[in-house]
Amino acid sequence: MPAREVPFRGGGFAPRRIRHVGWLSFLVLVGLWELASRAGLVSPFTLPAPSRVLAALLEMAGSGELARHLVASLARLALGWALGAMLGVAVGLAIGISSLARSIGLPLVSALFPVPKIALLPLLILWLGIGEASKVATIALGTFFPTVIATASGVDQIPKSLVRMAQSFDLAPRAIVLRVILPGALPGMLAGARISASIALVLLTAAEMIGAEHGIGALVLQAGHLMRSDRLLAGVVLLSVLGLAIGAAIGALERRLLAWR
Q1: Does the residue 22 lie in any domain?
Q2: What is the domain count for the chain?
Q3: CATH, residue 126
Q4: Which of 27, 57, 200, 212 sits between 20 and 30 A of 105, alpha carbons compared?
Q5: H helical segments located in the chain
Q6: Which domain holds residue 147?
Q7: Is residue 88 within 8 Å of 148, Cβ to Cβ?
Q8: In this predicted model, what pLDDT tens digit does every residue of 181-232 receive, in sequence order?
Q9: Residue 38 CB coordination number (10 Å)
């Protein structure tokens, strides 16, 4: 009896990337939105057409207003996220490496992480004033806790055999941290960066709505007060594009730093 080749059945649940489908579905959705607006199926006051939102964006870009809001938001976001991420990585590594730091830090992080950071903004305003410091501190707090948890989890997932092997070669503790623990924890740290960046963007918008003259959150709030739904949606589009850009930057960093996987 001739041999019969058995078909491979193991790839049914393996996700694969289908190029351009995401962008095409987005364009179809925007096109349907535009057609519904032009046909009068939705109110142009409550949900203006994408063409009107684009016109509002171009108007603000031409007047320089868009650049002022964007620069203010990017400065707050970059400073707050950088401070929170650096402190979070340091504390997360300490929790992952040191038994004493884990015993002290893990219960505190677990207790404080669920607290909504935007609820602390009035208290931070009392402590730091209504200027930039309170907004940056809110973003840094929101970034700090998920970074700590992601970094500590990344350290925990490193196979202990790798650490023992490094110790058997008589490597110094500093060298083990730099050559074994940091590279091994890097995937978890970058995953935490994705989460913390999204949280930072949400907190940025909320903080700017409470007490800021310039910024995307302030733009959205002012447009809502003036009943300018086209400018309001333009601010929402800016936030969405900013989130996509941050995600793409972190993805590029992952491909570069984790090419060894």
Answers
A1: no
A2: 1
A3: 1.10.3720.10
A4: 200
A5: 21-38, 50-63, 65-97, 99-112, 121-128, 132-156, 160-168, 173-176, 182-211, 216-225, 229-257
A6: 52-257
A7: yes
A8: 888 889 889 989 999 999 999 999 989 988 778 889 999 999 888 888 889 9
A9: 12
